[in-house]
Amino acid sequence: MRNVQCRLNGYEIIAIIIGNCYFADMPDRQNTAAGLVTNFAEFWDHTTGWHVIRTQKYLQALVEQLIKDGVYADELLSWNMDMIIPAVPFHDVGKISICQNILKKPGKLTAAEFDIMKTHVQKGVEVIRIMGRYGYFSDFLDHARAFAAAHHEKWDGSGYPSGLKGQEIPLEGRIMAVADVYDALISERPYKRAFSSEESARIIIEGANKHFDPVLVDAFKKLTNKFAAIANDYKAKPPPYQDMNAILRQQLSAVCA
Ligand SMILES: [Fe+2]
Ligand SMILES: [Fe+2]
Question: Is the full-model pTM beyond 0.70?
Answer without folding.
Answer: yes
